[in-house]
Write a structure and sequence with these properties.
Length: 84
């Protein structure tokens, strides 16, 4: 995986934060020649509240973090119904 860099912090508004997160995930995907599951395995998720619903008109930064954390957790498990 090649080195990647992201802006220091996501914008405070929901639309900007969503765009920042999507860009970050896209950058990670482009930087890696590894399987996405192998990339996800390098992440450690803490204090997660599993969230699979995102209200794009009123999401908070915490909501976005929980959705991304849930996605990474599901990739760790290789799907939403597989064991950890």
């Amino acid at each position: 995986m090649r080195p990647v860099s992201f802006p220091s912090s996501a914008p405070n508004d929901s639309a900007g934060a969503i765009a920042w997160l999507l860009g970050a995930v896209r950058e990670l995907a482009l930087a890696s020649q590894e399987d996405i599951a192998e990339v996800a395995d390098a992440f450690t998720i803490t204090n997660l509240t599993e969230t699979r619903t995102l209200d794009c008109t009123g999401a908070t930064l915490g909501d976005l973090c929980n959705v991304v954390g849930t996605l990474i957790s599901d990739i760790h498990k290789r799907g939403t119904t597989r064991g950890s």
